[in-house]
Amino acid sequence: MKLDELLKEITITDRVNHLPSVSINAIQFNSKKIRPGDLFVAIKGFAADGHQYIQQAIDKGAVAIVGEQPPTQLDVPYYQTPDSRKALAHLASQYYGHPYQNHVMIGITGTNGKTTTAYLLKHMLEKAGKTCSLIGTVHNIVNNEKIQSKNTTPDPLELQALLAESRDEVVIMEVSSHGIEQQRVEGIQFDYALFTNLGHDHLDYHDSIEEYFNVKSKLFKQLKKNGVAVIASHNEWGRKLIHRIKATEHDVYTFGLDDRDDMKLVHVCTEYFPLIKLKQESLEYTFQLPLPGLHNAWNTIGALLTVSKMNLSLEKVIATLDMFPGVPGRFETYSHTSGATFIVDYAHTKDAIEYCYQTAKRENAERIVHVLGFRGNRDVTKRSEIVSLCSSVCGQLILTFDDLNGVPEEKMISELEHLKENGAKNNAIVIPDRTKAIEYAWKEARAGDWVFVTGKGQESYKQKFQLPASNDKETIQFLQQERFALPK
Hints:
Elements: H1 3-6, E1 14-16, E2 27-28, E3 39-41, H2 54-59, E4 64-67, E5 78-80, H3 84-95, E6 104-109, H4 114-127, E7 132-135, E8 139-142, E9 145-148, H5 156-165, E10 170-174, H6 177-181, E11 190-195, H7 209-217, E12 223-232, H8 236-246, E13 251-256, E14 263-269, E15 275-280, E16 283-288, H9 294-308, H10 314-318, E17 332-335, E18 341-345, H11 350-362, E19 367-374, H12 383-393, E20 396-401, H13 409-423, E21 428-430, H14 434-444, E22 449-454, H15 472-483
Parallel strand pairs: 2-3, 3-4, 4-5, 6-10, 6-11, 7-10, 11-12, 12-13, 13-14, 18-22, 19-20, 19-22, 20-21
Antiparallel strand pairs: 1-5, 8-9, 14-15, 15-16, 17-18
Helix pairs in contact: 3-5, 4-9, 11-12, 12-13, 14-15
């Protein structure tokens, strides 16, 4: 693509050595990836400033530079822009031919439930005969092929490449607050935007929960002119968002407990897989949830309301729910010889953990045991509240690592000990090695226990632990098969 064609999508405030006919082979924002003929976009990141690597990019063959700093004398064209991150997203979209236009775009945001709702939507739509790509936390799935996911919302270059590669009719995206704030989805317009809930999370990144909410709500500014907003009304942040979006030109549909909601939860029979009744207009539907827990009732209803606005038969969609295969790392259950139930779940917020406990209590758990991990360099403001909650509910609380993320092991152990002494009752212990913490819970489990292992879900471990496993699922399978084999 010619440089002048590529630059049409961004704001340029100053330039030197303008050469519009230069051909651009690719776009990069990592100077290490530069090849001859590439355009380098200099971004000021959290760990490094890309402007410091401009000359390195030129030495490796970059034929043009886009950055925020005033231009200096260089051997290649330089274009100054007010916001390099925004520019990168628009350049990537232009380079790949604005591929979002080839799909029905569904964006899902919220603190909890994004992944489960995305997988439910994919299942529902595919059973209705539509092909779907999914971009999110567990995997990116494009043209029915799984691709490893690095972030919930990929960087603009990876995201636009995935959209361009996809031949699927529908693209379902989990959209994180980081993805919105860092403008990874800039330049994409959505047909449907779905809001699940909001709770205390990522306040190491956002200054306050109000700012966190404001960032999440920006997704709805990227709805197409005839785009549809689907919003949960059963939490206060959802109600605030409904009020905000109703002041715009977009259609807003809500789900919750109120008669004014477009889809209302009427009744829940509290079984492991709850039987629920919901109402839409004059019609009522009664069916069993494909996943345990009341929180998954909301995830399912949000997905159902969305597909109903895509003119699909709710009756037919609901009939396919008993075939839903589940979500990797979300409430995956494993048996124990004692009769205890082990659950691996991604839960890492107070609300998500409460959802887990509520399900256990409804199933008459005699004792709740929790292997609770924390990761380094993440939101520390929520830790004490979470530990206090867990200690008040659990018969046994085991504090351990998720990932160190560069924090020295001794420092992380000290932080866990501090949480134990100041936020927990006498039922808490610290076992830093995550696999040994799970092993301890396995050895101590007894009939009637519900043992939760939370924080990582399907994610791989980032450091080596003692047992030969790369994630929580493999740790439990090792304990089942190698150490404490189940009787045949």
